[in-house]
Specification:
There is one protein chain. The protein is mainly alpha-helical. Among the domains are: 8-214, Alpha Horseshoe (Serine Threonine Protein Phosphatase 5, Tetratricopeptide repeat), CATH 1.25.40; 431-692, P-loop containing nucleotide triphosphate hydrolases (Rossmann fold). The chain is 62% helix and 3% strand. The protein has 35 helices and five strands. A five-stranded parallel beta sheet has the order 2-3-1-4-5. Helix 15 (252-264) runs parallel beside helix 17 (286-298) and helix 19 runs antiparallel to helix 20.
């Protein structure tokens, strides 16, 4: 080497310098390794081995963008080997750039067809891009060449699971564990498989096992959080996400999961901030864009929400299906039914026969005999391999609705019974405990307590609470009220339940509260709804389950009004049983439990009728509204102390956001077809009728 060579001081050739750099790196001497690589690049700026090693070092430091820059530059070397393209493919995958990742991986396998790691990387990339059949071919090839490679069997199992080959996936996971018994990633992945099979407790145990083996395995925490979210254990979900973010505060999946939990709590502003933080780290993460859309939708920023859904749908991966459905549902909520219908058709065009899309379309249509979608859904349920349990549930409820529409009671209840049974098996629910709890509420809210704390809260006539059973006409009543120019319909807000929960145990602690407790809780509630339509004279809070707090409302906010919606008990329960709720209606998935809940609710409301101040409380029957819309609408407007407005009679034309299970129905004029509907299905309602004490007719 000449005296001008930067490596000459140690009399090293480029090859020797690289060998020494690798030795330093393998010995944990990163600074020395990095310095040698940089010296090599002064002599040979495109020396691919030096660039590759620097890229791997940057990746180890957590500097993904710098790692990609180095290895991408290495690939520009004319003699860059296939392994460097394979490394670049994996880094692109981690960045979420799946198109670029696939391109680099295909170069690697074309350049060196025997390079197993490149085939493995390509298989994983194709899996994440939703190209499952191609992924399967790659990963089967890898396992054929390396039958004792536990990692290869794990990757193959992941793709089999995505294709719905659940039992084959389970066999591959077990093969991986037989080769490596303490394989944390397999236990984590088994969590998803067991969840798809409906084995929820086993799924949780598998994720915990993964964490025991590797306490810093991020996916295991996310899988646990998703299970807890799916069974509505939100505090547990938050625990696992927070545990992940403690050791990986910049983890994109963890931040996105946190945003989802904040959305459940209706903390939409915080959810938007967290989602945007996640996108600043990985701008191409489709799931984060989708979650951002949901948060923006919650804030009423509908154009931005639609843009976020569109962004998610355009990115490669498997999230596009959910994003397209979410966009169509958003359009349905805003009342643009034609655009919503077109949105569902677009989703079906891109994802033909998708259970998720077919189920989402279900509420937006009335089925006729011979509808081809019915056959598509039946075939999907009958196919091999079987669908994951959550997709089976979606299809059973959708087919139940379709057969109810065409008045085929036997087929409708075959599917409704199946769907409800599958759903009921995913959570714990104690009907007796709920009965005891409701009785305890009545015991607390005595006439003496109501008199003792009368006037304790903050006086406000702004809130109007619509309460009752789900599917009892609450959405119809809200739509009538919200058609008045001085009324804002806030939909199903969880604010009241949250502010009460923050104050203590309900109802146990209520008797020990001071008057200031009631004042503070009422003030807190009013503050949290203050941003909603500030100019509106009335804000309607239509969460049916707020009937539990009916005794508390006049003590928190004297002047607030309560409208209790009633409907025929059996029609109400049938409507609940035929609906797969997105929220927490755990009592609706078994006919006898549903009947018992109705009786408990009925008894509690009968008690409140005796103790609530008459000026703050009225009851409205769904059947009466249908029979006499004009009279009942005028009664409602008079009750909330506003002048009459004819727009209330044309509620179905009102353009406002409706976020409820009944959003499609309130876009239609009053119809009578759902009154007494249960009679034609009485033969299938035995357990419900027995509990309610109603005779079959």
């Amino acid at each position: 080497m000449s005296n001008s060579n930067p490596l000459d001081s140690q009399q090293l050739t480029v090859l020797q310098a690289l060998e020494l750099a690798n030795a330093h790196w393998n010995a944990g001497q990163a600074a020395q390794a990095e310095q040698l690589c940089l010296r090599v690049l002064e002599v040979a700026p495109l020396q691919h081995d030096a660039l590759n090693l620097l890229g791997l070092m940057m990746h180890a430091y957590g500097m993904l963008d710098k790692a990609i820059d180095y290895i991408h530059k290495a690939c520009h070397s004319p003699d860059a080997p296939a392994i460097i393209f394979s490394n670049l493919a994996e880094l692109y995958r981690q960045k979420g750039l799946l198109v670029e990742a696939e391109h680099a991986a295909r170069i690697a396998v074309e350049q060196e067809p025997e390079l197993i790691v490149a085939w493995s990387n390509l298989g994983i990339i194709l899996q994440e891009a939703g190209k499952f059949t191609e992924s399967l071919e790659c990963l089967e090839y890898v396992t054929s060449l390396q039958p004792d490679n536990a990692q290869a069997h794990n990757n193959l199992a992941n793709t089999c699971q995505r294709l719905g080959y659940l039992h084959r996936a389970q066999e591959s996971y077990q093969r991986a564990l037989s080769l490596r018994p303490e394989y944390a990633e397999v236990y984590s992945n088994l969590t998803l498989l067991l969840s798809d099979l409906g084995c929820i407790d086993e799924a949780v145990a598998s994720a915990r096992r993964a964490i025991d083996i590797n306490p810093q395995l991020a996916d295991a925490y996310l899988n646990l959080a998703n299970i807890e979210l799916s069974r509505m254990r939100y505090a547990d979900a938050r625990h696992w996400v927070n545990s992940l973010l403690e050791f990986a505060p910049q983890h994109v999946g963890g931040l996105t999961a946190l945003a989802q939990i904040l959305i459940v709590d209706e903390r939409y502003e915080e959810a938007v901030a967290v989602a945007r933080k996640s996108l600043a780290i990985a701008a191409g993460n489709a799931n984060t864009h989708k979650v951002l859309g949901t948060a923006l939708q919650g804030l009423g920023r509908y154009e931005e929400a639609e843009q976020a859904y569109n962004q998610a749908a355009e990115l490669p991966g498997t999230v596009a299906e959910e994003a397209l459905v979410a966009r169509a549902v958003l359009l349905m909520e805003t009342g643009d039914m034609d655009a919503a219908s077109a949105g569902f058709q677009l989703a079906l065009k891109r994802f033909p026969d998708s259970p998720r899309v077919l189920a989402a379309c279900c509420d937006n249509k009335f089925y006729q005999a011979g509808d081809p979608d019915i056959e598509v859904m039946e075939n999907a349920l009958a196919r091999e391999p079987v669908l994951p349990i959550h997709e089976q549930i979606l299809l059973h409820f959708s087919l139940g609705k379709a057969y109810l529409d065409i008045k085929d009671s036997d087929r409708a209840f075959f599917h409704l019974d199946q769907g409800n049974a599958f759903k009921r098996a995913t959570f714990n629910y104690d009907a007796k405990q709920i009965s005891v709890w409701m009785k305890s509420i009545a015991e607390v809210f005595t006439p003496a307590l109501m008199a003792r704390f009368r006037g304790a809260g903050v006086v406000s006539g702004r809130p109007v609470f619509i309460i009752g059973m789900p599917r009892s006409g609450t959405t119809l009543v809200e739509q009538i009220l919200a058609s008045h120019p001085d009324v804002y319909g806030a939909g199903e807000s969880g604010v009241l339940g949250r502010v009460v929960a923050q104050a203590g145990r309900f109802p146990e602690d209520v008797g020990n509260w001071s008057r200031n407790h009631f004042l503070n809780i009422g003030t807190d509630y009013l503050q949290q709804i203050s941003h909603l339509a500030p100019d509106a004279l009335r804000v309607v809070d239509k969460l049916p389950g707020n009937f539990l707090y009916a005794g508390l409302i006049p003590l928190l906010m004297p002047g607030a009004r309560i409208i209790h919606c009633r409907r025929d008990p059996v029609d109400t329960c049938l409507s609940c049983y035929s609906k797969l709720f997105s929220g927490e209606q755990l009592f609706t998935y078994q006919l006898d439990e549903l009947g018992q809940f109705y009786l408990d609710y009925q008894a509690l409301m009968a008690h409140f009728c005796q103790v609530l101040p008459p000026e703050c409380f009225i009851e409205v029957d769904y059947e009466a509204v249908v029979d006499d819309l004009d009279g009942q609408a005028r009664r409602l407007i008079d009750f909330i102390d506003l002048p009459w407005n004819d727009a209330c009679l044309h509620f179905h034309k009102t353009r406002r956001i409706v976020r409820t299970a009944s959003m499609a129905q309130v876009r239609q004029p009053i119809y009578t077809s759902s009154i007494g509907r249960w009679h034609r299905h009485a033969a299938h309602l035995g357990p419900l009728l027995d509990v309610l004490g109603v005779e079959k007719r």
